[in-house]
Amino acid sequence: MSRPVVYGADYSVYVRIVRLALEEKGIGYELVPVDIFAADGIPGWYFDHQPFGRIPAFEHDGFRLHETGAIARYVDEAFDGPALQPIEARPRARMNQIIGMLDAYAYRAMVWDVAVERLEKTAPDEALIANGLLQAATVLRALTSLKAAGPWLLGEQLTLADLHAAPIIGYFVKVTEGQNLLAEFADLRDWFARIALRESFARTEKAG
Predict the structure, then answer these.
(1) Cβ distance 175 to 181 under 8 Å?
(2) What kind of fold does domain 89-199 have according to CATH?
(3) Helix 160-172 to helix 13-25 angle, to the nearest 10 degrees?
Protein backbone atom coordinates (compact mmCIF):
# COMPACT_ATOMS: atom_id res chain seq x y z
CA MET A 1 0.00 0.00 0.00
CA SER A 2 1.10 3.56 -0.65
CA ARG A 3 1.93 6.04 2.09
CA PRO A 4 -1.09 8.04 3.23
CA VAL A 5 -1.20 11.72 2.37
CA VAL A 6 -2.31 14.44 4.77
CA TYR A 7 -3.28 17.77 3.24
CA GLY A 8 -2.95 20.77 5.51
CA ALA A 9 -0.63 23.09 7.40
CA ASP A 10 1.69 22.32 10.28
CA TYR A 11 0.20 25.20 12.28
CA SER A 12 -3.22 23.54 12.36
CA VAL A 13 -4.44 21.85 15.54
CA TYR A 14 -6.62 19.47 13.54
CA VAL A 15 -3.90 18.55 11.07
CA ARG A 16 -1.70 17.81 14.06
CA ILE A 17 -4.31 15.47 15.55
CA VAL A 18 -4.22 13.34 12.41
CA ARG A 19 -0.43 13.46 12.28
CA LEU A 20 -0.23 12.39 15.94
CA ALA A 21 -2.40 9.36 15.18
CA LEU A 22 -0.15 8.39 12.27
CA GLU A 23 2.98 8.90 14.36
CA GLU A 24 1.61 6.82 17.25
CA LYS A 25 0.73 4.03 14.82
CA GLY A 26 4.23 4.20 13.35
CA ILE A 27 2.94 4.99 9.85
CA GLY A 28 4.99 7.01 7.39
CA TYR A 29 3.01 9.69 5.59
CA GLU A 30 3.35 12.71 3.35
CA LEU A 31 2.23 16.15 4.48
CA VAL A 32 1.14 18.22 1.47
CA PRO A 33 1.11 21.89 2.48
CA VAL A 34 -2.22 23.67 2.17
CA ASP A 35 -2.40 27.13 3.72
CA ILE A 36 -6.04 28.13 3.94
CA PHE A 37 -5.03 31.60 5.13
CA ALA A 38 -2.71 32.28 2.17
CA ALA A 39 -2.95 35.75 0.67
CA ASP A 40 -4.03 34.35 -2.71
CA GLY A 41 -6.65 32.10 -1.18
CA ILE A 42 -7.21 28.37 -0.97
CA PRO A 43 -5.81 26.50 -4.00
CA GLY A 44 -8.59 25.58 -6.39
CA TRP A 45 -7.46 21.95 -6.65
CA TYR A 46 -7.93 21.48 -2.91
CA PHE A 47 -11.73 21.70 -3.11
CA ASP A 48 -11.68 18.30 -4.82
CA HIS A 49 -10.35 16.94 -1.51
CA GLN A 50 -12.34 19.10 0.91
CA PRO A 51 -15.39 20.87 -0.54
CA PHE A 52 -15.56 23.31 2.38
CA GLY A 53 -11.91 24.33 2.10
CA ARG A 54 -11.02 23.26 5.63
CA ILE A 55 -8.00 21.26 6.77
CA PRO A 56 -7.05 18.47 7.05
CA ALA A 57 -7.98 16.21 4.18
CA PHE A 58 -6.58 12.72 3.74
CA GLU A 59 -5.94 10.18 1.01
CA HIS A 60 -4.79 6.58 1.13
CA ASP A 61 -4.63 4.33 -1.93
CA GLY A 62 -7.24 6.44 -3.69
CA PHE A 63 -9.55 6.55 -0.65
CA ARG A 64 -10.26 10.14 0.32
CA LEU A 65 -11.54 11.44 3.64
CA HIS A 66 -12.11 14.74 5.31
CA GLU A 67 -13.16 15.51 8.91
CA THR A 68 -10.53 14.91 11.56
CA GLY A 69 -12.50 12.41 13.63
CA ALA A 70 -13.19 10.19 10.65
CA ILE A 71 -9.58 10.35 9.52
CA ALA A 72 -8.15 9.55 12.96
CA ARG A 73 -10.46 6.57 13.41
CA TYR A 74 -9.58 5.29 9.94
CA VAL A 75 -5.88 5.58 10.74
CA ASP A 76 -6.37 3.56 13.90
CA GLU A 77 -8.47 0.86 12.25
CA ALA A 78 -6.76 0.56 8.86
CA PHE A 79 -3.14 0.25 9.97
CA ASP A 80 -1.16 -2.00 12.25
CA GLY A 81 0.27 -0.58 15.44
CA PRO A 82 -0.97 0.10 18.97
CA ALA A 83 -4.73 0.46 19.28
CA LEU A 84 -5.84 4.03 19.86
CA GLN A 85 -9.47 3.26 20.72
CA PRO A 86 -10.88 1.20 23.59
CA ILE A 87 -12.67 -2.01 22.67
CA GLU A 88 -15.38 -1.84 25.30
CA ALA A 89 -18.45 0.31 24.78
CA ARG A 90 -18.25 2.53 27.85
CA PRO A 91 -14.63 3.67 27.61
CA ARG A 92 -15.08 4.14 23.85
CA ALA A 93 -18.13 6.30 24.56
CA ARG A 94 -16.10 8.28 27.09
CA MET A 95 -13.38 8.80 24.49
CA ASN A 96 -15.95 10.08 22.00
CA GLN A 97 -17.52 12.28 24.67
CA ILE A 98 -14.17 13.93 25.41
CA ILE A 99 -13.46 14.46 21.70
CA GLY A 100 -16.90 15.95 21.13
CA MET A 101 -16.56 18.21 24.15
CA LEU A 102 -13.18 19.48 22.97
CA ASP A 103 -14.53 20.25 19.50
CA ALA A 104 -17.63 21.98 20.81
CA TYR A 105 -16.25 23.96 23.76
CA ALA A 106 -12.45 23.92 23.91
CA TYR A 107 -11.04 24.58 20.45
CA ARG A 108 -12.54 28.00 19.77
CA ALA A 109 -12.06 29.29 23.32
CA MET A 110 -8.57 27.97 23.99
CA VAL A 111 -6.98 28.33 20.58
CA TRP A 112 -8.67 31.32 18.93
CA ASP A 113 -10.13 33.38 21.73
CA VAL A 114 -7.09 33.10 24.01
CA ALA A 115 -3.91 31.94 22.26
CA VAL A 116 -4.33 33.37 18.76
CA GLU A 117 -5.85 36.59 20.10
CA ARG A 118 -2.90 37.08 22.47
CA LEU A 119 -0.16 35.92 20.11
CA GLU A 120 -1.26 37.28 16.75
CA LYS A 121 -3.16 40.52 17.37
CA THR A 122 -1.36 43.80 17.80
CA ALA A 123 -4.31 45.02 19.91
CA PRO A 124 -5.80 41.92 21.53
CA ASP A 125 -9.46 41.95 22.51
CA GLU A 126 -9.11 41.58 26.26
CA ALA A 127 -12.81 40.87 26.76
CA LEU A 128 -12.63 38.03 24.23
CA ILE A 129 -9.59 36.62 26.01
CA ALA A 130 -11.30 36.86 29.40
CA ASN A 131 -14.39 35.07 28.13
CA GLY A 132 -12.19 32.46 26.47
CA LEU A 133 -10.44 31.82 29.76
CA LEU A 134 -13.77 31.37 31.54
CA GLN A 135 -14.80 28.80 28.95
CA ALA A 136 -11.39 27.14 29.16
CA ALA A 137 -11.74 26.79 32.92
CA THR A 138 -15.09 25.06 32.46
CA VAL A 139 -13.52 22.71 29.91
CA LEU A 140 -10.62 21.87 32.21
CA ARG A 141 -12.94 21.21 35.13
CA ALA A 142 -15.08 18.92 32.98
CA LEU A 143 -12.03 17.15 31.58
CA THR A 144 -10.68 16.63 35.10
CA SER A 145 -13.96 15.06 36.15
CA LEU A 146 -13.89 12.71 33.14
CA LYS A 147 -10.24 11.68 33.41
CA ALA A 148 -9.69 8.13 34.62
CA ALA A 149 -6.97 7.17 37.08
CA GLY A 150 -3.70 6.51 35.27
CA PRO A 151 -1.31 8.31 32.95
CA TRP A 152 -3.78 9.05 30.14
CA LEU A 153 -7.27 10.48 29.91
CA LEU A 154 -8.87 7.04 29.80
CA GLY A 155 -6.41 5.44 32.20
CA GLU A 156 -3.66 3.11 31.06
CA GLN A 157 -4.34 3.27 27.31
CA LEU A 158 -3.30 6.22 25.19
CA THR A 159 -6.28 6.94 22.94
CA LEU A 160 -7.56 9.35 20.33
CA ALA A 161 -8.92 11.44 23.22
CA ASP A 162 -5.35 12.21 24.30
CA LEU A 163 -4.29 12.95 20.74
CA HIS A 164 -7.25 15.29 20.30
CA ALA A 165 -6.66 17.18 23.54
CA ALA A 166 -2.88 17.54 23.30
CA PRO A 167 -2.66 19.97 20.34
CA ILE A 168 -5.49 22.14 21.68
CA ILE A 169 -3.93 22.44 25.11
CA GLY A 170 -0.49 22.71 23.54
CA TYR A 171 -1.62 25.83 21.71
CA PHE A 172 -3.36 27.19 24.81
CA VAL A 173 -0.21 27.02 26.92
CA LYS A 174 1.78 29.06 24.42
CA VAL A 175 0.46 32.05 26.37
CA THR A 176 0.96 32.86 30.04
CA GLU A 177 -2.75 32.87 30.83
CA GLY A 178 -3.05 29.34 29.47
CA GLN A 179 -0.05 28.11 31.44
CA ASN A 180 -1.37 29.63 34.64
CA LEU A 181 -4.86 28.19 34.21
CA LEU A 182 -3.63 24.70 33.36
CA ALA A 183 -1.42 24.80 36.48
CA GLU A 184 -4.59 24.99 38.59
CA PHE A 185 -5.57 21.50 37.40
CA ALA A 186 -2.76 19.27 38.64
CA ASP A 187 -3.92 16.04 36.99
CA LEU A 188 -4.19 17.70 33.59
CA ARG A 189 -0.97 19.65 34.07
CA ASP A 190 0.86 16.38 34.73
CA TRP A 191 -0.95 14.64 31.87
CA PHE A 192 0.10 17.37 29.45
CA ALA A 193 3.70 17.29 30.66
CA ARG A 194 3.67 13.54 30.03
CA ILE A 195 2.25 13.66 26.51
CA ALA A 196 4.44 16.61 25.55
CA LEU A 197 7.48 14.36 26.09
CA ARG A 198 6.31 11.79 23.56
CA GLU A 199 8.25 11.54 20.32
CA SER A 200 5.04 11.94 18.34
CA PHE A 201 4.40 15.32 19.94
CA ALA A 202 7.92 16.57 19.18
CA ARG A 203 7.78 15.30 15.59
CA THR A 204 4.53 17.16 14.89
CA GLU A 205 5.55 20.47 16.45
CA LYS A 206 5.28 23.37 14.02
CA ALA A 207 8.67 24.18 12.53
CA GLY A 208 10.12 27.58 13.29
Answers:
(1) no
(2) Glutathione S-transferase Yfyf (Class Pi); Chain A, domain 2 (1.20.1050)
(3) 140
pLDDT of residue 97: 98
Q: What pLDDT is stored for residue 36 in this prediction? A: 94
Pairing type for strands 5-8 and 63-66 reads unpaired
Residue 104 backbone dihedrals phi, psi, to 5 degrees: -75, -35
pLDDT of residue 206: 84
**So where are the chain's domains?**
5-78, 89-199
Please, what's the b/e burial string for 20-47 (b: 16 or more CB within 10 A of its CB; e: otherwise)?
Answer: bbbbbbebebebeebbeeeeeebeeebe
Residue type, 30: E
AA identity, residue 1? M
Task: Write b or e for each residue in 67-102: b if 16 or more Cβ atoms lie within 10 A of its Cβ, otherwise e.
Answer: ebbebbbbbbeeeeeeebbbeeeebbebbbebbebb
CB atoms within 10 A of CB 63: 10
- Bridge partners of residue 65, in order along the sequence: 58
**What is the domain class of 5-78 according to CATH?**
alpha beta
* Residue spans of the chain under pLDDT 50: none
In sequence order, what are the residues at sequence separation of 6 or more whose Cβ sits closer than 8 angstroms to the Cβ of residue 64?
Answer: 49, 57, 58
